[in-house]
Structure formats: structure tokens, C-alpha cells
Amino acid sequence: MDRIRTSRYSFPLRCHDDGPSPSATSSPTYRREVVNRSAVASGPTLPEDRDWFVFTFFLSVFAYLYANLALLCGIPLLLSGDQVYFWMEAQRLARGEKIYHDFLQFTPPGTDLVYLAFFRVFGQRLWVTNAIVALLGVALCWICFRLACQLMRPRLALLPTMLFFVLVYGRLLNATHHFFSLFFCMAAALVFRSDRPRIALAAMFLGIAAFFTQTHAVAVLLALSIYLIASSVRQQVPWKTIFFDQATLFLVFASMLLLLSLYFLADVGFREIWYHQVTYVRNYVRGAFPGTFLGIRVPVGWRALPALSQYLFVCALPLVVCPLALWLIWRSRNTAPTSEGARVVRLSLIGLFLFLEVANNPNWFRLYTISMPSLIIFVWLISHARRCSRALCVFACTALLLLALGQTFVRQRHDYVVATLPAGTVAIDSKAFIPLNAVLQRTHPGDYFFQAIWPGLYFPLQLRNPLYVDTVWPSEETRPEFVERAVHELALRPTRYILWSHSIDGPERGNESADHLSLLRSYLRENYRKVEQLPDGAELWERE
Length: 544
Fold this sequence. Notes:
Layout: H1 22-25, H2 28-40, H3 52-69, H4 83-94, H5 110-122, H6 126-149, H7 154-172, H8 177-191, H9 196-210, H10 214-234, H11 239-268, H12 270-284, H13 305-331, H14 339-359, H15 364-369, H16 372-383, H17 389-412, E1 416-421, E2 424-429, H18 430-440, E3 448-451, H19 458-461, H20 480-492, E4 495-501, H21 518-527, E5 528-533, E6 538-543
Parallel strand pairs: 3-4
Antiparallel strand pairs: 1-2, 4-6, 5-6
């Protein structure tokens, strides 16, 4: 296989789908190069690559997740993050409430139903939520490893897996719709081939992914569609075959999504679902917090540089490595085609399209959740560098190991309060325990209670949200009709306590026209009295 003399890299492509053409493989020189390359990069997995090292690695992944989700004595940590919205929604589903009828939901219901299924089987316990986070983490690491093994040796494939679970998932520990959708999107990338059964299988996985996050699945669907057209044209596949391949991809995707959504379509209708999942999200849901870059709240300075550099590395990676890989492969298009090159093109397109989808309304969390393809491509690029590739890999592994140990040490040595709550015994951050304890002392499981800006107390304390909305903000996300309905529901249902916040006592600076909370503020002051001012700025109000 010829090398590009002007480049520091040696790339194996012209893009040919998952295998070289018969004319290319007839060359003895090509066969010899493929055999040599298989021993170094992406060929059949050798017995020595399936050794104890890989097994030990995945045991370490489980141990790492356990040590970051529970104290060593076995008490689970109380997690936070956007997953608490899905805990509350699954809780409401378990009580017989309905999505779109009784509470607002602007993502597809897949994540709610996963949590609901676990709660039905194991009960509404806090250790169950941590177990879901651990299981999803192991599943994502496995899919990342399998995808990386298509491009490199199994031992080297552990590096992008380690990058993902230390820099991304291990930092967040947040089992939201983004990560569930990512798993099925990457499963589609893993099984995809140009034969029609594999196209249908990949489309089926994307249909499931769209039931968790509609936009991720559509981005990957478009990437695979473009890849399929380009590779078919290059191989001079008849246009009739191309048409049927595209029809299979889109029809199976739509059919799978329709099948999963059938109950909700029958319940509320297509127009209502379209409003919540498309119109409302496009017009009113914002990305990053105002006044921040991508929502990153790390102060600028030398001390914050290590944390800030991690954010910037992960967020910028898709925009850098995916186009770079496609460009370098395009430069080597005159060399003999290989299946590795086709997989690199496919994964780079997926990473780039996921980035473009998120770039429409970006924040650092969304960029983190679509980083898996670009992390794999990044390591693939390093592995093909003529200089320093081994040293870079060793350095990266060492740095990640130290970072993982540091993360685990910080979580284990953090200042926790161990408390027995209605949803189980947990270790809680000492600052977060103050508002939780204030509400715990005044309420009982099953009581109506409204937490205005964050739904983190409903599940641990087994309380009920009386409103259609999960939170209220002085922004367009809280529509005027939502506020009117909230006032009516507070008057209708016996809600004794409300946890308010001074941050929503007035409009956001520079965004005064988006504030629709005046009616709710008036109702609060006319019917409730403030009984406790909490250190974090929260205010506990009691009905008079």
C-alpha cells in the first residue's frame, strides 16, 4: 500500500464500503500490505488481544463507576444533573399521570419509560437511579470499544474508551436522554453495512434513538444516507439499487419511530406531539445560560486552566478531528481501498453531523454527549502519526488514569451528610442537604410541593409536583399559558409549601420582555408567607 510522502500520516483510503474491490485485492503487494496492516491496526482480533488486560479494563470501568456513585461502605451518593427531571417524570407516570396531558415534556418519552420500567421492577429507590447510571456507563464504554476496534487494535481501542468514560461520562454521571440516544446511534454505526439487511438494522436502532432524542437520530440518519450515496456512486452501483437502499433506510427508521410512538399519537395526536417536540423546542428552549460561553461556569484564570482546558478539548474536538480525518483520507484517495477507510469516513461523517446538529443551540453538556465518534477518530489519527504516536498514547493513558483516580478521591473525600430519606439512605453534599432537610422536616411522602427552579427534591422525598410545568423561569421557556395554568393548579390542589428563589423574583437583565411570571409572583405573595430563608438564596414559603 502506497504511503503519502508529503504527510506525517499513513492513511488507508479510498472510500470503499467495508472492503476493497476485487481488482485491488488481486495484487500480491496489496495482500501483503493488508496482512501487515492487520497486525498493527484494524484486522481480525488476535488471541493475544483478547487477554486479561481488556477484561481487567472493563472491571476497572465498573469499579470506577461504583466508586463515583457510592461510598465505599455501599451508601449511594445523591446524584444531580438533568436526569432528575426524568426521575420526577417517571414518578408521575407511576402515579397514573400522562405525558402531555398532566405534565410538560419536550423530549421524546423514551427516557421516562426506561426509568419507569426500573421503578416498576425495583421500586422508587435512590440506589436504582445510580444503578441505571452505572449500567448505561458500562454499555456506552462497550459500544465505544467495539467501534474503536473496527479501526485499531483492541488494546489501542481502550484509549478512546478511557477518554470517553473519564473525560465525559465519568465527569457527568448523568443518565439523560442524550446518552440513551447516543448508545443507539452508535449501535447503528456499529452494525451498518451496505447490504440491505444491515441498512434496515441500523435504521431500526436509529428509530429507537429518536424515541429518546429526536435530533441526534436524524443527524446520524443523514450522515449514513450521505455516506451510502457517496460510496454507492464511487462503486458505480445502479441508481435503482441506491434508491431502494435509501428507501429502506428512511422507511425502517420512520416505521420504528412510529411504532414506538403509536400510543402517544393515539392519546394526544400528531399536532400536540409536534408542538412539544419540535415547535416548542425550536422557539423557546435555550442552550447555554446567558452571560456564559457554552454555559461553562469556570472562572478565567491560571487555577481554572486545567478544568477549562478539558471543556475546550472535548467541545472543540468534533469540529477539528472529523473534518481533518475526511480531508486526509480524501488526499489518499488514489491508494488501494480498505474497509478501515470506509469506517473512518462513516464515523467522521457521524461525528460531524452530530456536531452540526448541536451547534444550532450549543452548550458544553450537549457537546460532551456527542463526543464519542470524535474521540475515536482522534485516537485513530494519533495512531497513524509517524512520530511520537506511542509516546502520546502512553502519556494520554497515564494522564487519564491519574485524572480518574483524582475524580474518585475527590468524590469519596467530599463533605457528605448521610441521611435516611423516603427514597432510601444516601450520602448528600452538605450544602445541598440544607434545603432538602428544611423541606424534609415539614412534609410527608405523597404531599404536594412545588420546587420552582429545580426538580431535585421530588424523588428523594417522594413528593408530588402539583403543576403541569416542572420549573418556572423568567424566560420564554415558561409560556404565559403555563403560568395561568400553574396558578389554577396551585389553587385547586392543596400545596402547602413552595421552594422559591430570589433569582426569579424579577426578569433577567436584558430579557425583560420574556418574563411572564408576574401573575405567579402575585399569587405567591397573596396566598403564602415566607417561613425560611436558606443560605443558597432559596426561600421556603408556606400557604397561609
